[in-house]
UniProtKB/TrEMBL annotation:
Localization per Swiss-Prot or TrEMBL: Cytoplasm
Major localization listed first in the record, in broad terms: cytoplasm
Sample GO molecular function, one term: metal ion binding
Annotated EC: 3.4.25.2
Name of the protein in its database record: ATP-dependent protease subunit HslV
Keywords of the record: Allosteric enzyme, Cytoplasm, Hydrolase, Metal-binding, Protease, Sodium, Threonine protease
Regulation: Allosterically activated by HslU binding.
Pfam families: Proteasome (PF00227)
Role: Protease subunit of a proteasome-like degradation complex believed to be a general protein degrading machinery.
Record HAMAP family: HslV (MF_00248)
Cellular component terms (Gene Ontology): HslUV protease complex; proteasome core complex
Domain of life: Bacteria
Family affiliation: Belongs to the peptidase T1B family. HslV subfamily.
Length: 181
């Protein structure tokens, strides 16, 4: 039998835009194989003079490398989110070093929400909700329902969506961190 690398499963990140406001939040759980390694990992960051919030799912070192590169792209393109995202995705897909990085990024501002992947995708969801990570589909379903049927604030929607994911997904906990713009 060969050695099988334990799969790192970590996190749920969700972002919502509503009424000119944005919130992005994540849980804090980091899991290695069948073991919870940490309960309070911080997976979101303010970027580019506090104009954007970025969250990550996947390997932490890989994601932090990508966040640094993304912030450099924002600076190089004067805070133009779409351009910076496309340039990062292009580099991520074509660079020999970067293309081995295993992570996804979710970015929000009051005007726009994006998901950036290592396959070269830059996705702007039509509903202003971004979700990545192990529990993302649970949080996404909750956020869509809350957006449709309540007048909750973006922060409340993110919190409730993450709590729903934590109640269902074994790779998501209720140590929630949220940033708002």
């Amino acid at each position: 039998m060969g050695y099988e690398k334990p799969q790192i499963r970590s996190t749920t990140v969700i972002g919502v835009i509503r009424d000119g406001k944005a919130a992005l939040g994540s849980d804090g759980q980091m899991t290695l194989g069948a073991t919870v390694m940490k309960h309070s990992t911080r997976k979101i960051r303010l970027l580019y003079q506090g104009r954007f919030i970025a969250g990550f799912a996947g390997a932490t070192a890989d994601a932090l490398t990508l966040l640094d590169r993304f912030e450099s792209k924002l600076e190089a393109y004067s805070g133009k989110l779409d351009r910076a995202a496309v340039e990062l995705a292009k580099d991520w897909r074509t660079d020999k070093y970067l293309r081995r990085l295993e992570a996804m990024l979710a970015i929000v501002s009051p005007e726009k929400a994006l998901i950036i992947s290592g396959t070269g995708d830059v996705i702007e969801p039509e509903d202003g909700i971004v979700a990545i990570g192990s529990g993302s589909m649970y949080a996404l379903a909750a956020a869509r329902s809350l957006m449709k049927h309540t007048s909750l604030s973006v922060e409340e929607i993110v919190r409730e969506s993450l709590q729903t994911a934590a109640d269902i997904c074994i790779y998501t906990n209720d140590h929630i961190v949220i940033e708002t713009l």
